[in-house]
Specification:
This protein has helices at residues 2-21, 28-49, 57-78, 81-84, 86-91, 96-125, 137-160, 164-178, 193-197, 200-209, 217-245, 249-252. With 253 residues, it is an all-alpha fold. Helix 2 (28-49) crosses helix 3, helix 2 (28-49) packs across helix 6 and helix 10 (200-209) crosses helix 11. It is globular.
């Protein structure tokens, strides 16, 4: 069972990547150019124009922006994916979750490539680099689990309520500004700090950033634990909803 699942997942992920880059001039390069350009522009705007005065601001922004791009771009692709694959689901005996997971893994590889391309020179030119590079797989793995569960949950909801992708897009646009991505959490006035405390995406981003920007064990490990707790909640909610509605899936597609 596990071998069949793994074989299908690998095959569909590779097929998905080939389909994305087919008939493109530069293929994979276009995919990683978007986060690189976005990071470069925002780094200049927030540091030079808006005058956010922080040491190694590029590393700080990288630790928030790259995981945020991964979250939003993956959800954008995954939410309508089950509905778009309705002919495949009706024709073959295939676990619908595999279709979502292959989309997530496809975008995850793009995220890793863009992240490493930017991170290595940033660490080299940092004024006072203080990162725990070897610990990065932990928050990255937690981020992957969280995004997979959110994508599966939202994609299934979209089968029954087709405006899910529009609501999610609107919600993420708002969350970008209320999540400390391009500004530190200390910039938020105390009376509004509760917004950050109840923002689950903040914990996923902060655990990632705390490993590459001014790493401190006393902050990193509690952040990682909070991110894992948020991810566990997402996994439970997604699993319960899939268990409840998966039998209705084929009646709506």
């Amino acid at each position: 069972m596990i071998k069949v699942f793994s074989r299908q997942l690998i095959s569909l992920t590779l097929a998905n990547m080939k389909a994305r880059y087919r008939k493109t001039f530069a293929g994979f390069i276009w995919v990683i150019l978007n986060p690189i350009i976005l990071f470069s522009v925002q780094s200049v705007v927030f540091r030079k124009i808006l005058k956010i005065d922080m040491p190694d601001y590029g590393l700080f922004l990288l630790g928030g922006l790259l995981p945020w791009i991964f979250i939003t771009s993956t959800l954008e692709m995954s939410i309508p994916h089950l509905y778009n694959c309705q002919s495949l689901l009706k024709s073959f005996r295939i676990n619908p979750f595999i279709l979502i997971l292959c989309q997530v893994l496809d975008n995850f590889l793009n995220f890793l490539a863009a992240f490493l391309i930017i991170l290595l020179p940033m660490l080299f030119f940092a004024e006072s680099p203080n990162s725990a590079f070897m610990l990065l797989p932990l928050p990255i793995f937690i981020l992957l689990l969280a995004v997979s569960s959110i994508s599966a949950f939202a994609s299934l909801i979209n089968i029954f309520y087709r405006d899910t992708k529009f609501i999610m897009g609107f919600f993420l646009n708002i969350m970008y500004f209320v999540t400390p991505i391009f500004y530190p959490v200390e910039f938020v006035p105390p009376q509004y700090r509760w917004i950050i405390d109840f923002n689950p995406l903040y914990y996923l981003v902060e655990a990632f950033r705390s490993a590459i920007y001014q790493y401190e064990p006393s902050f990193f490990w509690p952040s990682l634990l909070k991110a894992f707790g948020v991810t566990l909640v997402f996994i439970i909610l997604s699993s319960l909803y899939w268990k409840k509605r998966k039998n209705d899936l084929y009646s709506y597609i």
